[in-house]
Amino acid sequence: MEDSNYWTLSTTIADGEKYDIEGFNIWEYKWINTGQYFFKKDPVRQINTKISVYEINIQEKSVKFGATEISNGAWIIYTHYK
């Protein structure tokens, strides 16, 4: 389990809506589930929610982010600032 203190809410977006992390649109790459997760309060329902950690690989670079689908087609995205 990841330390939730190092993850911050970045956005709430619709499925497929353009969103860049470190200059890369996350929807243009395969999300690889790292098996890691953390818990944060869902900003909409205010309940403790399990957030999975994903990574996308672009050439020699790996970008990690937390994400969970909070309703059909609606996602919350977290970024790591450690």
Structural overview:
Helix content is 0%, strand content 62%. With 82 residues, it is mainly beta. The strands form two sheets. A five-stranded antiparallel beta sheet has the order 1-7-6-5-4, with no helix packed on it. A hairpin with a 2-residue loop joins strand 5 (48-58) and strand 6.
Largest sheet: 5 strands, antiparallel
Shape: globular
Assembly context of the chains: single chain
- What is the number of beta strands? 7
Beta-strand content bin: over 45%
Please estimate the helix content. Answer: under 10%
Structural class: mainly beta
Which strands sit side by side, in order, in the main sheet?
Answer: 1-7-6-5-4
Topology:
Elements: E1 7-14, E2 20-21, E3 24-25, E4 32-41, E5 48-58, E6 61-71, E7 74-80
Antiparallel strand pairs: 1-7, 2-3, 4-5, 5-6, 6-7
Key descriptive features of the protein:
single chain, about 80 residues, mainly beta, five-stranded antiparallel beta sheet, two-stranded antiparallel sheet, globular
Task: Summarize this structure briefly.
The chain has 82 residues and is mainly β. The chain has no helices and 7 strands.
